[in-house]
């Protein structure tokens, strides 16, 4: 297995749990590594299988916001273990699917796990989402499922997405979006909790507001699209994640996750699906 160039402690944990054969880790995070979406949050049952199904649902919501369909060329940036590519491969035909990830270990696992259905093409490429090794106007859809906060620059990523997208193409993503009023408190709290976040979830820029996204979309040459607040539908993620942390003796990660749960429950940090369209 190749060494990673990025600091992603939670992926180190997942690889360790996969090696140990932890069935919950495999069921909850073997395909997708992101929050879940529950149509009816009250019926979430806290099992790893329920979490895995909810993660698939979130992935589909973001893909649909990107206008995915048969015959398209689709780029998934920050593709994790290839879960989004696998889902698209199962749902659509005559598609060309490309997953990009900066972490070679994840690319290796994605290549092992995800094989194209007849008539589809799949490629996994090791690259930085902010320096895409693709030609201008070469994709119909660009996706970024719960990963943009890790990228070195949202500005550079939007410029790259705009460059590789064809006329009428769409960029769709999901992200944790703080309300503007929370920023001073978050910046103050980061003096105490910032190191814990970095030690568990890695380097994250969690300060990008909806107004920032609107400005960025416009500056990068996109038309505005969907702005959907799905915070309530993601809330069952937190007890499930916290239990996984405790089961794997990740006390600091459990505390960081509880902090984000608290912000989400109070409506101070929203989980949003956003889309942008090339004119
Ligand atoms: C929370 S995971 C989401 C993974 C995947 N999108 C999914 O939904 O399962 C964040 C992902 O972003 C990737 N990532 C972080 N920085 C990146 C970068 N600069 N370029 C490409 N991928 C990056 C990580 O390696 C990881 O796979």
Would you kindly provide a written description of the structure presented here, covering whatever features stand out?
By secondary structure, the chain is of the alpha/beta class. The protein has helices spanning 9-20, 23-29, 48-65, 83-91, 104-113, 154-164, 183-201, 210-219, 231-234, 237-247, 251-265; strands spanning 73-77, 96-101, 121-126, 139-145, 165-178, 223-229, 269-277. The chain has a single domain, classed as Vaccinia Virus protein VP39 (Rossmann fold, 3-Layer(aba) Sandwich). It has a 7-stranded mixed beta sheet. Helix 3 packs across helix 4 (83-91) and helix 10 packs antiparallel against helix 11. The structure holds S-adenosylmethionine. Residues 6, 8, 32-34, 77-80, 83-84, 100-103, 106, 128-130, 145-147, 150-152 line the site of S-adenosylmethionine (SAM).
Short synopsis of the structure:
This protein has 279 residues and is of the alpha/beta class. It contains eleven helices and seven strands.
Query: Which CATH C-level class is it?
Result: Alpha Beta
- Number of E-state strands: 7
What is the CATH superfamily classification? Vaccinia Virus protein VP39
Low-pLDDT runs: none
Terminal Cα span: 42 Å
> What string gives the helices and strands in order?
HHHEHEHEEHEHHEHHHE
| Percentage of residues in DSSP E strands | 15-25%
Bound small-molecule species: S-adenosylmethionine
**Number of continuous helical runs:** 11
Rg over CA atoms, rounded to whole Å, is 18 Å
Which CATH architecture?
3-Layer(aba) Sandwich
Q: What value does the average pLDDT take?
A: 96
| Fold-level CATH name | Rossmann fold
Coarse structural class? alpha/beta
Largest beta sheet: what is the strand line-up? 3-2-1-4-5-7-6
């Amino acid at each position: 297995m190749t060494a990673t160039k990025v600091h992603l402690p939670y992926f180190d944990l997942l690889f360790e749990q996969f090696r140990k054969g932890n069935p919950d880790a495999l069921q909850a995070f073997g395909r997708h590594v992101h929050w879940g979406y529950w149509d009816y949050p009250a019926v979430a049952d806290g099992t790893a299988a329920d979490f895995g199904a909810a993660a698939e649902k979130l992935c589909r919501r973001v893909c649909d916001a990107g206008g995915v369909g048969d015959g398209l060329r689709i780029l998934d940036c920050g593709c994790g273990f290839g879960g989004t590519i696998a889902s698209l491969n199962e749902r659509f035909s005559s598609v060309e699917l490309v997953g990009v990830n900066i972490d070679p270990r994840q690319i290796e696992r994605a290549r092992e796990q995800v094989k194209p259905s007849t008539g589809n093409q799949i490629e996994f490429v090791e690259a930085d989402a902010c320096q895409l090794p693709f030609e201008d106007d070469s994709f119909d859809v660009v996706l970024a499922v719960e990963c943009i906060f890790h990228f070195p620059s949202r500005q550079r990523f939007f410029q790259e997405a705009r460059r590789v997208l064809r006329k009428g193409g769409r960029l769709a993503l999901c992200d944790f979006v703080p309300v503007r009023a929370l920023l001073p408190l978050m910046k103050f709290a980061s003096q105490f909790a910032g190191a814990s976040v970095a030690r568990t979830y890695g380097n994250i820029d969690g300060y990008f507001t909806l107004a920032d996204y609107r400005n960025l979309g416009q500056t990068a040459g996109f038309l505005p699209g969907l702005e959907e607040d799905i915070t309530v539908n993601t809330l069952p993620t937190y007890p499930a994640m916290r239990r996984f942390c405790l089961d794997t003796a990740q006390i600091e990660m459990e505390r960081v996750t509880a902090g984000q749960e608290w912000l989400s429950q109070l409506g101070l940090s929203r989980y949003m699906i956003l889309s942008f369209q090339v004119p």
